[in-house]
Please model this.
Amino acid sequence: MESSLVKDNPLLLPLNQDKTVYDGFITVQERDFRMRILLPPDRQLARARLHCCWQLKHLLRGYEHIVKQEVGLKSRPDCRSIPPPQYYSQLISEMETLGWAKLLSIDTEFQTLRLKAEDSSGRQHVLTVKLKSKHPAEAPECSADLPIPLVITWTPQSTLDQLHSQFLLLLESLTEFWDVLDEIDSKTWILEPEKPSRSDTTRRIAIGNNVSIKVQVDPRHPKMLPECCLLGAEHVVTPLRNKLNANMQLWNPDSSVLHNLRDVLEIEFPSPATHEKSSFSVECGICYSYRLEAAIPDQVCNDPRCGQPFHQACLYEWLRALPSSRQSFSIVFGECPYCSKVRVHLALTDRRQ
Model:
């Protein structure tokens, strides 16, 4: 019965514009039965209701989900028609030219392809291509893990090979950007993001215990001075901030970003060769965990004898509930939850929502 229903594609026609009510006939065991199907507004098939005579209900017992699936496919607003035969021959021809070795995967509808590419530094990248039914007359949807928008030029005469070549050229334009971040990743301890992707432009680099710097590299100008934000206790951050401001003119675009950061801050960054990452992964003094969802502790008690770090969200909730806390403009001051000194403050404009 299942194969018969799918093969015969029963005549069920929508009665409303939203395609949530269907009425028509279905043939079961060489008999025609009238049926009405009501879909909920969210089109969840599990909650669809079938209305028919008791004989049909008896015959369909255990097969109701098949009928619902047929109607669900009909009612999908984004339901696409099956591509014509020349679509598949065109696809095979283009893949022959591109090379099957570059194909990582293809979906069962032969419309979503994942193509691999390698830049000049040996990095592996993936280009996801979603072809339209009228390919190549319609431009495909393309996506990749990149720090800049993926802009592809496409004409009805374009091919997958040309698309792949455009992607390679874009990868080459970003090689220097990834070189900069790869050096930082390999020679320093990265606190955030935990697992950087090729689209990430920021790195939070450990400088010492509860002290770090967040840098944001420009993908188009990766060796220029990045946006920098020093995080940590004021008595530690202030001297570093002064050095950064005083030595900013020494920045050399011909040198690497990491080398320049060392020079302008006049420090040596802890590296995997000299330190364990656990030295910088200090738990929050309020919730006693290191990661709170995606956040790590980035607020620190300013008392040199304490220096306990906290999550922004945890510290905000603590200060808000503390009767002795006070606010000056957008800054909230209060006692440290760890040492009880009036040494912590939080800028409300910086608090993560």
The two ends are 54 Å apart (CA to CA). Confidence is low (pLDDT under 50) at residues 1-10, 349-353. Residues 282-350 form a domain with the Herpes Virus-1 fold (CATH 3.30.40.10).
